Amino acid sequence: MNKWKIPGLVILSTLVLSACSVNSNADQLYKQPKPLSAHVMLPENIEPQSTQVLKVHVMQENKTVDDAKIVQFNVWKKDAPGKVETAKAHYDGSMYKAKASFKEDGIYYIKTEINARGEHILPTQQVAVGKLSKEELHSLQPAENETHHHHSHH
Hints:
With 154 residues, this protein is mainly beta. Helices cover 14% and strands 41% of the residues. The longest helix is centred in the first third of the chain and has 15 residues, at 5-19.
């Protein structure tokens, strides 16, 4: 009787394990991330000593996101990275808007912080305000207007 225990266990284990197979569509059974996208709209020309309206259209799966927890613009001058002005944006029925002031000529960065539906994205753009020196013109980076995705699941 004992001599059939081990072969029987081997055969039973083989049958049980062969019944388990990997479903090739198993990844479809899990919740798929739906990344946010943002289209940041900045004025073409920004003059020093001016206040500008910054706009961002936030989307997910080609639908407007109107329930973001946080939408704000962080603005700082390139040569003064410690002086960040934060402008909280408000939804106006079609997009998020906020006002930011640009005090003097130079290169500024505008980081749009968006936190919605478990996603956190931070598209950042560079803008020229007023007249730039040759060195500043040389350091301008090409415009990048679309989103950077950072997944945040807290």
